[in-house]
Amino acid sequence: MLIDSEHRARYHWAARAVSGKEVLDAGCGVGYGVEILAAGGATSVTAVDIDPTAVAEANSRFGEHAKEIVEGDLMQLPFADDSFDLVVCFETIEHVQDGRQALGELRRVLRPDGVLVVSSPNPEVYLGDNEYHVHEFQPKELAEAVGAHFANVALYRQDAWVGSTVRPSEGDAEPEETLQTSDSVAHGEPTYGIVVGSDAELPRLGAILAFGDAFDVRWWSEQLAQSKGETAAAVAREAQTQKRLEETATALLEANQELAQVPLLRHHLAELQQMHADLSEQYHQMLHSKSWKITAPLRRAKGSG
């Protein structure tokens, strides 16, 4: 799936800075990042995750590439101070109760001139509510939080569709590497914010473009087609409900006017009032439903097309 390409893109991008360094993968999941970081030339790769099942699978699949893969909590890492030259922490900070405290813990295990690379989904763009996410950092918010622990900070953005890019945020461009992107991608909010922090000179990581496989493209094409169909149906339902709401409102007004002259219309009026209330409730429930919010970008795209 595309999310796999997004995760791997981050690791391949960060691996540009690991050569000759002792590296920690904090929140390693099933461990494929360990192999990528080791291939980047790291002297050693240590990995930690809070999920014992994930740690077991990581050791089974990628243990040969790691110094060790252990169970541990990001809020209290099982490592001594100044243990690592570089720490990566991808899609983990949003899961902990106090992300800022966790950043302090990541700083603790880094050597004085060490480098932290940390990411979070952007709540302004990231689709869907994840029940396991405690707090998703906006990119600038994450940069400020990292800046509380490091003298130097650089903000990168990650965008994804059928490919995934990681590149410097606006204002931090590295001119020797550029990626041609559409205006909507270039100027819109990123799906993920990635922050690099260090008290030493920051590594120049540049930009990367990672594509998913053919299955990704086909799957997303199918999802897009399905979403378009759901959006069209939702728009039709909204129009129909709006029309019926307007019709019942008009009928209600007319009935009120006639009520003063025809007492027999009282019963009819009560029915219309109930119908109007029911339709209003259905209409507002639809507008506040999760599916309606998720399909809002597609409706806006369709309206501007």
Q: Please, could you describe this protein's structure?
A:
Helix 3 (52-62) links the parallel strand 2 and strand 3 (68-71). The protein contains ten helices and nine strands. Helix 1 (2-14) runs parallel beside helix 2 and helix 7 packs antiparallel against helix 8. By secondary structure, it is α/β, with parallel strands linked by helices. It has two domains: 2-212, Vaccinia Virus protein VP39 (Rossmann fold); 216-304. The chain is 46% helix and 19% strand. The two termini are 28 Å apart. It is elongated. Mean pLDDT is 83; it is low at 175-186. A nine-stranded mixed β-sheet has the order 3-2-1-4-5-8-6-7-9, with helices on both faces.
CATH structural architecture of the largest domain: 3-Layer(aba) Sandwich
Tell me the helix content: 40-55%
Strand content: 15-25%
- Which oligomeric form is depicted? single chain
Number of helices: 10
Tell me the count of domains: 2
Give the end-to-end Cα distance, rounded to a whole number of Å: 28 Å
Q: Report the principal-axis shape.
A: elongated
Q: Identify the strand order in the major beta sheet.
A: 3-2-1-4-5-8-6-7-9
What's the CATH class of the largest domain, please? Alpha Beta
- What is the count of β-strands? 9
Low-confidence stretches: 175-186
Structural class: alpha/beta
> What string gives the helices and strands in order?
HEHEHEEHEHEEHEEHHHH
The largest sheet, given as strand count, sense and whether it forms a barrel, is: 9 strands, mixed
**Overall mean pLDDT:** 83
Question: Could you say what the CATH topology of the largest domain is called?
Answer: Rossmann fold
